[in-house]
Write a structure and sequence with these properties.
Strand content of chain B: 5-15%
CATH topology of the largest domain in chain A: Rossmann fold
CATH superfamily of the largest domain in chain A: Nucleotide-binding domain of ferredoxin-NADP reductase (FNR) module
Largest interface: A-C, 45 and 52 residues
Number of strands of chain B: 8
Strand content of chain A: 25-35%
Oligomer: heterotrimer
Helix content of chain B: 25-40%
Order of helices and strands of chain A: EEEEEHEHEHEHEEHEHEEEE
Radius of gyration of chain B: 20 Å
Largest sheet of chain A: 7 strands, mixed
Number of domains of chain A: 2
Distance between the termini of chain B: 55 Å
Number of domains of chain B: 2
Order of helices and strands of chain B: HEEEHEHEEEHHEHHHHHH
Radius of gyration of chain A: 18 Å
Number of helices of chain A: 6
Largest sheet of chain B: 5 strands, mixed
Chains: A alpha/beta (275), B alpha/beta (311), C alpha+beta (326)
Distance between the termini of chain A: 35 Å
């Protein structure tokens, strides 16, 4: 019997800081036995720093990217993220995955995509975006609206530059308030979404970000005519086992780790309050 | 409950001086007496005195922030409210305290150990506990089944309450007889006693949650960064939890005994609470919660504090 | 059903494994059967309070992991009342669904559950209010205790293979009638509420203000979750030593503040009421949705042990009343 609690081992091969304040870091892992993990955008892995603990992280890389490297971006906030930040190149960490349900790619194909992100919650959205760009002809219009408190906290900045240069995806970056040196858009994400006003025709939307951002963006999307079952999100919860056994990540009868973390707003209609 | 008090509370409710009354609801055995918040006059008849009102009502004040409430208190509850006031956890002005004459509280475990059958009913009359069940009916003197904390009671009355109801109270003892007995043991024997008692602990934290003075948003035992105490059943972890919590209680614990009675395993937490009360009294001549302004013993330094521990 | 002399039944079962008898406290070896359900539930046999399940050490920058599977000796849990037997089956639903928990599987396979019909419900029992019966046939073997005999029958393959059933005489028709009579008497003796469709009312009343009142008494200590036979939530923690350590899981409680506290500081259930409501919903609504059964067996241990007098029966009755008046 496979032991779902036992981690596989991966080596940290590369890392870099995403944010100017060095609180957000991206780490790149390769499996010790050389395997290439199969997964879909939206899934997550439980990363273990043995001795400190284990925590869930959305997979930021896309399965279509070359090589066998898995990418994760973590904000240094607690015990495990601190340990991950301090892990050195060449050190091994534990990895369990892929876990969760992932984005419903089969629904998204041949439709327009509206990707909305806030803060450092762009990780699985990166996976989705890169997947779509690698399969560009399978998707219609792709619009990306991404904002952070300040320019220094926007992640994947270099990649956004490259994606813009492609010309086949519309990228809108914004910061909450005016900031010296920032010549781009200014405004909270829900506000900017209202200004850009993406069309709901043949479109699916994905919103990922802090609860307050989602609470204000959802009504804007509904007003634009998006149906609840066309708007998806990836929920975050405190997780331990990651496989629906320990009980804590539940939203009503669903476990965010097992039945999610991706849900449409039709599925979690009653639950915005508790989240 | 005293008729005059019911009238007074009715009046205060009806003219809007208070939004409600916090008191104990008396239930028939085997149900337990719980704390209720009554916000209309008809509900007042549910509130009653009982020797089985074994919680500290001050624990519930956190749920009533911002409301003007009348609270029926016994000595240890009044002292807990004073402590919470000094520690800026509540605004004393929001509470109208009615001091009850405290006759002590009974530990049902002591009753069960004296009645070795299946209990069907318990009544309280005068200073007797009348127990009925499949082994017939017996009358037990309350003094035999008083909670251990009541045996070391420092003060059963509430001098700082807004009004006080007259009546008989138990006599404050504070002789710490049990503590002295344990202090006479050798250290290895003390550790054996402690281990045997405390290895029953299942880390349910009932003791912490019923305590009015355990109000920290993040308890030290819940911290993972740094991890002060490990989870699990090893006696070293259990000892860490209880002893560190007692150190946090020193000079603050009011000796109500709610923790010992709440403990589902019946652990004699009173050994620890009485010990720290005795130590604090001897070291600083201090009793907790006497006024709403008296600072906690361990939060200030006086010139004449004994410094024997300073090497 | 077979009719087996009491001492012989025990002797036969002891050949299968070590027998743990129902006592007032819990399930213990070498004991007399008590007359009531134990104050502690049998769940520790399938989910121990503390379980170290992974050992690891870090020679230089590498990681070596070792799974810890304990040798589980075969145990007979004897005299489980049907409520407790059902509780094990309910915990099975969580740990045996995919992906299976291998540690749990190993422990579960080492247990033989011998259920005894409950002839002495405790003060706070309410199994019949949930549609169950103190004479429900559950577990691997079902037994009804008479003066000198047990009427017993196997319910599962493990039960069938546990003893040599053919050795024993069949129960007579009169014996069967005695069992039926006892069953009816006990079922009648229990105070009956109708909670059979309570999940619908719970979903309906989720956002109702009445929860503030219902949850007022509760101080969110966690005693109920530790004594509940079906509560299985666990916490996972790493313990670090010099260059080695272990990962363990311990009983956790949804009543604790940090149960769902996220690293960002956001706590979806920060108010005490929300945690109590979540527990009631989990037992009486979410479990029903996920598995088609309530997660509560009506044993009443939570009511026995609660330090503040919270009573789940009162809570459900009040919610029913509220819904009835709508």
């Amino acid at each position: 019997m496979i032991n779902p609690y036992k981690a596989e081992v991966a080596t940290l091969v590369r890392n870099n800081f995403e944010s100017d304040d060095r609180a957000i870091k991206t780490i790149y892992l390769e499996f010790e036995n050389g395997k290439k993990m199969e997964y879909i955008p939206g899934q997550f892995c439980e990363l273990s720093v043995f001795g400190k603990g284990e925590a869930p992280f959305g997979i930021a890389s896309s399965p279509t990217e070359e090589g066998k490297v898995l990418e994760f971006t973590a904000n240094r906030a607690g015990l495990v993220t601190k340990a991950l930040h301090e892990t050195e190149i060449g050190e091994e960490i534990g990895i369990r995955g892929p876990l969760g349900n992932g984005f419903p790619i089969s629904k998204f194909t041949h439709h327009n995509l509206v990707i909305i992100g806030g803060g450092f919650a762009f990780t699985t959205l990166r996976s989705l975006l890169v997947f779509a760009l690698h399969n560009r002809s399978d998707f219609g219009n792709i619009e990306v609206i991404y904002g952070a408190r300040e320019p220094g906290l926007l992640i994947y900045k270099n990649e956004f530059k490259k994606w813009r240069e492609r010309g086949d995806v519309n990228i809108y970056l914004t910061v909450d308030k005016e900031f010296p040196g920032w010549k781009g858009r200014v405004g909270f994400v829900p506000q900017v979404v209202g200004e850009i006003a993406p069309s709901e025709k043949d479109a699916y939307a994905v919103i990922c970000g802090p609860p307050v951002m989602i609470n204000f963006t959802l009504p804007v999307m509904l007003k634009l005519g998006f149906a609840r079952d066309k708007i998806y999100t990836s929920l975050e919860k405190r997780m331990k086992c990651g496989i629906g056994k320990c009980g804590r990540c539940n939203i009503w009868s669903k476990y965010v780790c097992k039945d999610g973390p991706v849900f449409s707003f039709a599925e979690i209609e009653e639950l915005a309050e508790e989240h | 409950m005293d008729k005059k008090i019911i009238e007074l509370l009715k009046e205060k409710l009806e003219n809007g001086e208070i939004e409600g009354v916090l008191g104990f609801e008396r239930k028939q055995y085997p149900e337990k007496n719980g704390v209720i918040f009554v916000n209309h006059s008809e509900g007042l008849k549910r509130i009653a005195d009982s020797l089985f009102n074994t919680l500290n009502i001050a624990t519930y004040l956190g749920k009533l922030k911002g409301k003007k409430v009348a609270v029926l208190v016994r000595g240890c509850e009044e002292r807990a409210i004073n402590m919470l006031s000094v520690e800026n956890q509540l605004n004393r002005e929001e509470f109208f305290l009615i001091g009850l004459p405290c006759q002590g509280i009974v530990n049902i475990r002591k009753v069960k150990s004296l009645y070795k059958g299946e209990i069907k009913n318990i009544e309280e009359k005068d200073r007797l506990i009348i127990v009925e069940g499949d082994k017939g009916k017996i009358e037990i003197s309350v003094s035999k089944v008083l909670s251990n904390s009541c045996l070391d009671c420092q003060r059963p009355t509430s001098p700082t309450a807004d009004i006080n109801i007259e009546g008989d109270t138990i006599s404050p003892d504070a002789d710490f007889l049990k503590v002295k007995e344990i202090e006479s043991l050798s250290f290895p024997d003390r550790w054996e006693m402690f281990k045997n008692e405390f290895e029953l602990c299942i880390r349910c934290y009932s003791c912490r949650e019923v305590c009015p003075l355990c109000y920290c948003e993040t308890c030290f035992v819940d911290s993972s960064d740094p991890q002060w105490v490990e989870p699990g059943k090893d006696v070293s972890d259990i000892a860490s939890f209880h002893l560190i919590r007692m150190l946090h209680m020193a000079g603050r614990c009011v000796g109500c005994g709610a923790c010992e009675i709440a403990c589902p395993e019946g652990i004699k937490l009173s050994y620890l609470t009485s010990k720290i009360a005795k130590d604090v009294k001897e070291a600083f001549n201090y009793e907790s919660g006497l006024t709403a302004t008296q600072k906690p013993a361990l939060s200030e330094f006086k010139q004449n504090d004994k410094g024997e521990f300073i090497l | 059903m077979k009719k087996i002399p009491k001492a012989e039944f025990i002797k036969e079962l002891s050949k299968w494994g070590k027998i743990f008898f129902r006592t007032d406290e819990g399930f213990l070896e070498n004991n007399e059967l008590s007359n009531r359900r134990p104050s502690k539930p049998p769940k520790k046999f399938v989910i121990p309070q503390e379980e170290i399940y992974l050992l690891f050490y870090r020679p230089e920058q590498k990681i070596v992991q070792k799974e810890i599977f304990r040798k589980e000796e075969k145990k007979v849990i004897f005299g489980l009342y049907p409520c407790d037997a059902k509780s094990i089956e309910l915990i099975d639903l969580n740990f045996l669904k995919d992906p299976k928990d291998p540690y749990y599987v190993k422990r579960r396979e080492s247990l033989l559950l011998v259920t005894e019909a409950c002839t002495h419900p405790s003060t706070h029992c309410f199994c019949t209010s949930l549609g169950d019966s103190p004479f429900d046939r559950r577990g691997d073997i079902f037994a009804f205790g008479m003066k000198d005999y047990y009427l017993a029958e196997p319910l599962s393959d493990r039960g069938r293979e546990a003893i040599l059933w053919d050795k024993f005489a069949n129960a007579t028709e009169d014996d069967g009638k005695l069992l039926e009579k006892a069953k009816k008497e006990i079922e009648k003796s229990l105070e009956q509420f109708d909670f059979k469709n309570i999940h619908k009312i719970l979903y309906q009343k989720y956002k109702d203000k009445i929860w503030d009142e219902l949850a007022f008494k509760c101080v969110n200590c966690g005693a109920c979750t530790f004594y509940c036979p079906t509560c299985y939530c666990f916490d996972v923690q790493d313990v670090e030593r010099t260059n080695w350590g272990y990962r363990e899981r311990v009983w956790d409680s949804c009543m604790f503040t940090i149960y769902s506290l996220e690293t960002s500081g956001h706590n979806p259930r920060s108010a005490k009421m929300t945690r109590l409501r979540n527990r009631v919903m989990h037992k009486f609504a979410y479990y029903q949705t996920s598995y088609g059964e309530y997660g509560c067996v009506g044993c009443g241990r939570c009511i026995d042990i609660c330090p503040v007098g919270f009573d789940i029966r009162e809570t459900l009755k009040t919610l029913k009343l509220e819904a009835g008046h709508d």
